[in-house]
Design brief:
The protein has twelve helices and eight strands. The protein is α/β, with parallel strands linked by helices. The chain has one domain (19-302): Rossmann fold (3-Layer(aba) Sandwich), CATH 3.40.50. The chain is globular and about 60 Å long.
Length: 305
């Protein structure tokens, strides 16, 4: 596998693979990802999408924002449907890329059994999870990836009491061909990870933190800034796992040289969903982040870098 040169804004193809206008909310992080992601994937591609914000964004019949074939399935069967589509393409002698693109609810909760099965079989598909940390399309209900303390319509007073699932690590435990974490605030990083994924045979999984202004309770113009803050404070790590080896991506790797990360409170304060957090809870979250980054730095020293 070769590593492509890092893409710049000027290096992106001018070809647009979605029609102008879509049904996304103002400030939607997914709309940024979808436009840039399609540029990396190219036209020879079939999408499998479960009920989600993406289903609405790409178009409600008879309107479509996407210029490639899209198969809308059920919540629980995204990876299974993608497996079948890939088998059909193989039977016809086509190398068409099959991409499952689902939200956190359709990945970490309802669809996790189908994903686990596809991972165990190492199906030759790309699976993308855009994680806006709740069931946003149906009214901001808690999901498996909703952060502890996050207010949702089903955790309305004190916020979610359980720790969120670390889905990329759950996926990594299956030993897939490729795992990557991405952020809607670093779309070119996502673009280049998709280019790498396309070169690898087997199941490739990309997990993207995707800010959602209505669900997170933040200003629509702050989508990109909030996503960047999640990375800069060390809350959301950007990395790749290739052949079982994990390495931090550049935006996160830069943090290793900083004596102190950006305070987590800067990130939390911009979102009303964290209004119920106590100072003690915030301190506990900050401590866990600091401990994780201490482990990263110690591992770097052991490698002699």
């Amino acid at each position: 596998m070769t590593s492509p040169a890092k893409t710049t804004v000027l290096g992106l193809t001018d070809e647009e693979l979605i029609h102008p206008g879509n049904r996304a909310c103002t400030g939607c992080g997914l709309s940024v990802l979808y436009r840039i992601g399609l540029k990396a994937l190219g036209r020879d591609c079939i999408f499998v999408v479960p009920p989600s914000c993406l289903t609405v964004m790409q178009g409600l019949y008879p309107i479509s924002a996407t210029q490639m074939p899209v198969l809308n399935g059920t919540f629980a069967s995204t990876a299974a449907i993608a497996t079948g589509v890939r088998a059909a393409m193989k039977r016809r002698g086509k190398k068409t890329q099959v991409v499952a693109w689902a939200g956190d609810g359709g990945t970490s909760d309802i669809g996790i059994q189908a994903l686990s099965g596809a991972l165990e079989r190492n199906e030759d598909i790309i699976y993308i999870c855009y994680d806006n940390e709740a069931y946003m399309n149906t009214g901001v209900q808690r999901s498996g990836t909703t952060p502890r303390g996050g207010l949702t319509t089903t955790t309305p007073y004190t916020g979610k009491q359980e720790q969120s699932k670390n889905v990329p690590e759950i996926v990594a435990a299956h030993n897939p061909a490729y795992v990557a974490t991405c952020s809607a605030s670093f779309p070119l990083d996502f673009h280049d990870k998709l280019l790498r994924a396309k070169e690898i045979k087997g199941l490739k999984y990309l997990h993207i933190q995707t800010p959602c202004p209505p669900g997170w309770g933040c200003d629509e113009r702050m989508t990109i800034e909030i996503g960047r803050m999640a990375v800069e404070c060390g809350l959301f790590d950007l990395y790749e796992i290739i052949d079982g080896t994990k390495r931090l991506s550049e935006p996160s790797e830069r943090l290793l040289n900083k004596k102190q990360l950006r305070p987590l409170q800067d990130y939390l304060a911009l979102q009303t969903r964290f209004a119920a957090l106590t100072e003690e809870q915030v301190a506990g979250m900050q401590k866990r982040i600091d401990e994780r980054w201490k482990c990263y730095r110690e591992a770097l020293k052991e490698e002699g870098q």
